[in-house]
Amino acid sequence: MSGAGPILAVDSAVVRYGRLTAVDGLSLSVREGETLGLVGESGCGKTSLAKALVRLLPLASGRILLDGIDTRSAAASAKSWLPGRIQLLFQDPVASLSPRLTIRRLLEEPLRIRRALTPDAWREVEGTFTELGLAPDILDRYPHQLSGGQARRVSMVRALAMRPRIVVADEPTAGLDLSVQGEMLNLLAQVQRQLRLTYLVVSHNLNIVGRITDRVAVMYLGQIVELGTTRRVFDRPAHHYTAALLAANPVLDPQHRRRRILLKSELPSPLNPPSGCRFHPRCAAAQERCRIETPVLREVAEGQQVACHFPRPGTAG
Q1: Confidence of residue 198 (pLDDT cuts 50, 70, 90)
Q2: Which residue, 24, 27, 125, 165, has fewest beta-carbon neighbours within 10 Å?
Q3: Phi-psi category of 259—alpha, beta or left, where left has phi over 0 and alpha has psi -120 to 50?
Q4: Is 159 in a helix, a strand, or coil?
Q5: Which structural domain range is residue 161 located in?
Q6: pLDDT at 128 over 90
Q7: Could you read off the pLDDT of 184-193 as tens digits, one per residue?
Q8: pTM of the predicted model, to two decimals?
Q9: Residue 140's CB: how many other CB atoms inside 10 A?
Q10: What Cα–Cα distance (Å) separates residue 289 from each residue in 274, 277, 292?
Q11: Is the pLDDT of residue 2 over 50?
């Protein structure tokens, strides 16, 4: 992991779908060369944030900075500027590939848009194609003729053709068999080393996040509630929601299973989030202050921040 400053910074970002606020004042930074995990329950806003990062969804307010440049500024208005810095690997790779085009045409398309479809550029694409274990005959197939693992590899080749510095991977192993999941994770690590990429991995699979990330951000109802090094957060979660997530995560080793934490109620509607701390209706440690005052991220230990008025005992220091 690089010690350089943030290559990506999200500043008070808000994403809305009509009356529903999916991402609510979220701030986050990603350091160059690291792998940051973004976790949380379905519906917490993870994918909405991922799409906003590549401008597939507009920001209602706030800023997203890449290399210090606001992605909505005039300096970033060139058609090739954003794709050349950040790419999204979609959760459903087959659905993200046009069914009307062969794989060859799909790989050529982003280069044509950038007016960069040269013989040298195409040779690089073919080299990446081979390095990712794809046979040349796949170039003349259509997306529906690929397996799930092949489709994910093709999506990765297509993203890497733009030579981005950051890759946002939305559920990179969803729908894959366990053996194929391992291959995909090894592939992500291999490509990161070779191309010096920065990753933001969006997932609800905590086992995968624990394996491949340097830091992890925990999201709840559109906000970050805990942020820190993966090892620290997984070993000593400070937020009661993080602890409940980890306790519910299936672990194969019986020596390392956690005691289940039963939450008090169902996930509130994002159309009408609770006042104060959004987790307080489900939290056994909630007090009157939690119902009134919204907590902000604060440091509880080196490499760990939490948005909680009453963090879990034993997590400070």
Answers
A1: very high
A2: 27
A3: beta
A4: helix
A5: 31-54+76-213
A6: no
A7: 888 889 889 9
A8: 0.91
A9: 11
A10: 13, 9, 5
A11: no
CA atoms within 13 A on the CB side of 259: 0
Does residue 250 fall inside a structural domain? yes
- Element containing residue 230 per DSSP (H, E): helix 230-235
Give the count of beta carbons closer than 10 Å to the beta carbon of residue 307. Answer: 23
Which helix H or strand E contains 190, and what residues bound it? helix 178-195
Same domain, 207 and 224: no
Q: Which of 239, 207, 254, 255 is nearest to 311 (CA)?
A: 239
Say yes or no: 147 and 200 in one domain.
yes
Q: Would you say 197 and 165 are in contact if contact means Cβ atoms under 8 Å apart? A: yes
Cα–Cα distance for residue pair 293/188, rounded to 1 Å: 41
Distance CA 134, CA 152 (A): 11
Residue after which a domain boundary falls, among 181, 196, 213 = 213
Tens digits of residue pLDDT in 19-44: 999 999 999 999 999 999 999 998 89
pLDDT for position 282: 94
Rounded mean pLDDT of 169-194? 85
